[in-house]
Amino acid sequence: MPHFIIDCSENVIRLKSADDIMQEVFDAALSTGLFVASEIKVRINPFTYYNNGNSLDDFIHVFSYIMEGRDTDQKSKLSKVIVNQLNRILPEVPVISINIKDFEKATYFNKTMI
């Protein structure tokens, strides 16, 4: 269920492959014990054009969407683990951040639920 959508400057995938970056996010999320491996989904969007505070500094931002039910401490740990892991493999990237949003069980629906 968790979805991790990675937005980054295009140069980031020149520093480290998109597959490697996605795998690091996957592994970091799995390491928290909050998710089952078969449910973790990771995608990446490299941007050619962006304005990052009137600069072209490289960046990574992870948008995380998880099913409701985790407490603030669990979500905080997840955020820290992912940012720390990305910083470890890409220390030259000046901006690495994440935010977490909850899916509501009552309003979530997918094809398998038909």
UniProtKB/TrEMBL annotation:
Pfam families in UniProt: CHMI (PF02962)
Domain of life: Bacteria
Gene3D superfamilies: Macrophage Migration Inhibitory Factor
Keywords in alphabetical order: Isomerase
GO function terms (MF aspect): 5-carboxymethyl-2-hydroxymuconate delta-isomerase activity
SUPFAM superfamilies attached to this UniProt entry: Tautomerase/MIF
InterPro entries, per database record: 5-COMe_2-OHmuconate_Isoase, Tautomerase/MIF_sf
Matches recorded under CDD domains: CHMI (cd00580)
Full protein name: 5-carboxymethyl-2-hydroxymuconate isomerase
